[in-house]
């Protein structure tokens, strides 16, 4: 006959989480009349969390879903096409504060700006 031995380990939780765990423990006692240890409650919560793994993982994802069409339009409305072709190397020079910055600006059509 085999007996399973529950191995336990310590896990540190914040004060707020501990308070909520104690509140939930007390609510279970009031609502069901059943006493559960904090270890039993944590085990149960982890099991429930694993049933909905995707929800748990999703809860850690960024909720930013990008810009709305109006926000994109507003962003683009502030840009102006100068009509002068801009090469990738020109952008690199500007970003790295290369000495050729003035030469690049001189090539732009001042009327279009």
Percent of sequence in beta strands: under 5%
Overall pLDDT score:
78
**Sheet with the most strands?**
none
String of helices and strands: HHHHHH
Shape: elongated
Low-pLDDT residue spans: none
- The structural class is mainly alpha
State Rg. Answer: 30 Å
Q: Termini, distance in Å?
A: 87 Å
Helix percentage range: 40-55%
Counted beta strands: 0
- Count helical runs: 6
Q: How is this structure best summarized?
A:
With 113 residues, the chain is an all-alpha fold.
Secondary structure layout:
Layout: H1 15-32, H2 38-51, H3 53-58, H4 69-77, H5 88-95, H6 101-107
Describe the structure.
- The chain is mostly helical and 113 residues long.
- Among the domains are: 15-58, no CATH class; 80-113, no CATH class.
- It contains 6 helices and no strands.
- It has helices spanning 15-32, 38-51, 53-58, 69-77, 88-95, 101-107.
- The protein is elongated.
- The N and C termini lie far apart (87 Å).
- The model has no long low-confidence stretch (mean pLDDT 78).
Features:
113 residues, mainly alpha, 0% strand, elongated
